[in-house]
Amino acid sequence: MAKQLTIRGVPEEVGQRLENLSRARGQSVNAIVLEILGSAVGVDERRRRLARYATWSPEDLAEFNDALAIQRMIDDPLWR
To answer: Which pTM value belongs to this model?
Structure first.
């Protein structure tokens, strides 16, 4: 569920710039503020990092599986 926030004490200049940006982009002030907040707290960066793992090529997957194969080996003498 989305969180609702009320922001008080927004300086006149900040409010005006948000409205100008809103008009220039053809978006609501709310959409602009959400975009700015998401960027400020790193949501966009996190999504970009996570996208790398959701878009692996077959070569990336093979490299990953090769790296894990060594970790999956059991040293029998150590388990006796």
So the answer is: 0.56
